[in-house]
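User: My instructor asked us to take a sequence, write out its structure as tokens, and then describe one feature of it. I'm not sure where to start. Here is the sequence I was given:
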Amino acid sequence: MAQGIILAGGFSSRTQNNKMRLSIDGKPLIIHTIEAMKPFVNKIYLITGHYDQDIRSIVHEDEKVHIVYNADYEKGMFSSVLCGVKNVTEDFFIIPGDIPFIDASTYDALLKGSKPIRFPTYEGKEGHPLFISIKLKSRLLNEPVDSNLRKFRDEQDKEIILVDDPNILKDIDTMIEYKTLLDERK
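Assistant: Let's start with the prediction itself. The structure tokens for your sequence are:
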């Protein structure tokens, strides 16, 4: 098993509202992301920021899901990564909250890999989630807040996991992407 970090601290500026609340199949987007990860982790740290109270109104903490407010969310996504990494005590996944439908086979394949950093690819395109060994925790926490996960990942011994899951590439940054995803699910 592992732990999970779900990033939901941003402004959702391109959707112009809290995209974590967008409804898909009758549930908020963030709930889908949590439910996809839950079977593969012992704990999930849901990192909030700008929409903290709004997200708390739709996500209820339980024995697996812990909401953590990132007071530095205005410094960007990597500040939320660092906020989440401070909490983990085992190997962990990191995924943005707006990537809701990762297939179970993708999580399983990432867990079965062997290198300290693993990420999926579909048809030659890199996607999410990212798997990181707990052995890299202190190294990651020493990164400056203006760094990013791709830079950190590319400096490590990494493994590319080929998956048959186009959902690793489907994030929702705009209302057009949201409507496209809804159309695909019909």
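For the description part of your assignment, you could build on this observation: The longest strand covers residues 41-48. Try explaining in your own words what that tells you about the chain.
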